[in-house]
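A protein record in our archive is deliberately plain, so that people and models can read it alike. The record that follows is passed on verbatim for readers who wish to inspect the format.
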Amino acid sequence: MAEPSTAPLLRAKHLYTTDLAPCPYLPGRMERRLVALCEPGDPPELVDLLTAAGFRRSQHALYKPVCPSCTACIPVRIVVAGWRPGRSERRNLHRNADLVVTEVPCRATTEQYELFHRYLSERHDDGGMAAMGFDAYAEMVEVGLPGTMLVELRDASARLVGVSLTDRVATGLSGVYKFFAPEERRRSLGTFIILWHVRRAAELGLPYVYLGYWIADCRKMAYKDRFAPLERLAGDRWVALAAGGSAEQEPW
């Protein structure tokens, strides 16, 4: 599938850069983002283009690092047609074969929020989202795009164990945010959610699964290089990224 045309970018009327702020991933570095605001009525091709250009979405804003002295954040995506599960991925799929995965409307529930809060308390208690209340969570989930879906994972007892907020764009599926039961370590649910997205993209005939930013020197972001085949954005071209050695790290 061809990449989206650049013409819709002219419709991104609200482009701005943020002030410098401490980097949330690499200590001692400063971050700046280029932000594009998408309004109701903007063509869907705009989000398609920005996603393929390495932007990530948060509500109606799409952003991309433009840090003045750092290029550590590398956009990456899985090439669905070339993906074949390795031994560890087959084990993961087998361990989670009992899970029921459902695409549901983007509506926040108390059950989701309780899981979200437990996940943050265990995994990201020092992050900016740790104090997020239910109203802010609901805004994150419910302010989306026409192609946004919420994916719920439930075990055999119907207990909610994982959630992914996911965008469907012209060239693939793009995970916006995922969280899961922190006590279910044996399941490696972060990995399973990504594998589910690869399988679902294949069912939908979509060529890529966008994983956001790979950061080699950040433990929370370096795991992405174990999914193959993987492409990284280099300038304005997507090129192959060789698999790395972080196979034992669980996606956060």
